[in-house]
Every structure is written in structure tokens, then in C-alpha cells.
Amino acid sequence: MKEKHGVTAIIYDERDGKRYFLILHRILNWTGWEFLKGGIDKDELPEQALLREIDEESGLSQVKIISNLPQKFNWVAKDTKYVYTPFVLRGNMNEPIDLEQEIIEHDAFKWVEQNEVESFLTHEDNKRIFKEAIEILGRISEKNGKD
Predict the structure, then answer these.
(1) What is the pLDDT averaged over residues 50-59?
(2) DSSP one-letter code for 93
(3) Reduced to 3 states, what is the DSSP secondary structure of residue 37?
(4) CA distance 113 to 111
(5) DSSP bridge partners of 64
(6) Taking the CB of the first residue and of the last residue of the chain, which one, N or C, has fewer CB atoms within 10 A?
(7) Total domain count for the chain?
């Protein structure tokens, strides 16, 4: 079985004391809501792939990597095992998003308040990594509060 590696971007921003997360409505190969994701090209580091995919799929450039999640997630489709590394990034909700690309993967996006994100996500693996991202952000906020 082939194995393909990739990255997932859990992008958030904060407004009025609330966290909002970017989710995309996928229309290529299946339909539903997900976090931005994409493959790692040959000789590319995961962080490089992450920033390239964010630029390609959303046009966002004002992003900062906060953390990667310790546990990768994977799935199998058409005799290929996909192994993806999730990252948490801080973005800017005011930056325009451009979904136009050579192959249209998504037809819509939303910045969704933290407590509503899970209800939109289509796949359980996205829900699981979202919960892990929230835990990491909580630990970072707690640590920063103690400084």
C-alpha cells in the first residue's frame, strides 16, 4: 500500500475574548467541512508544506505556527494510506481568503466560534485533532498567564 504524508492546518484567531477557527467546505472527492490540509512534496519539510498549502488553498499569509500536535492521524482511501501531521496556527480573520486555485477543492469557508466548530466538522478525525488543539491552546494560555 502506498503511503502519502501531509499536513493539516487548524487556524484560529481571537476577537472579543473568543476564539474563532477557519473551516473549509470541501467539494472535491467528498462534500463536508474540514480544516485546510494538503500533501508534503518531495524534499519538503512539514512546516514548508503547511505554509505552502495555506497559501495555495486560502491565500492567507498572515499566519504563525503555534504548535504541531504530537499525534498524527491517518486514513486509507483507494489503496493509499494518508498520514497527516496537524498544526495549530494563529491567523488573521481580517485577511481576505481566496479559494480560487487550479483544482477547486473548496467552495466556501467560515470562521466559526470555538464552541460550534465540532458541529460543522464532517469527519471524526478532524473532531479529535480539534479537541487536542484546544487542549494545547489551553496549556499555552495557562503558561502565558503565569509568566
Answers:
(1) 94
(2) T
(3) strand
(4) 7
(5) 90
(6) C
(7) 1
Cell of residue 142, nine digits:
495557562
Residue 87 burial by Cβ neighbours in a 10 Å radius (0-12, 13-18, 19+): buried
In DSSP terms, which residues pair with 73 in a beta bridge?
A: 84
**Assigned C-alpha cell, 75:** 486514513
Give the separation between CA 51 and CA 59, rounded to whole angstroms: 10
Q: With pLDDT > 90 as the criterion, what percentage of the chain qualifies?
A: 78
CATH of the domain at 127: 3.90.79.10
- Measured in residues, the chain has a length of 147
Q: What is the pTM of this model?
A: 0.92
Phi then psi for residue 112, to 5 deg, are -115, 135
Residue appearing with cell numbers 491567523: 91
Of 72, 74, 84, nearest to 5 by C-alpha is 84
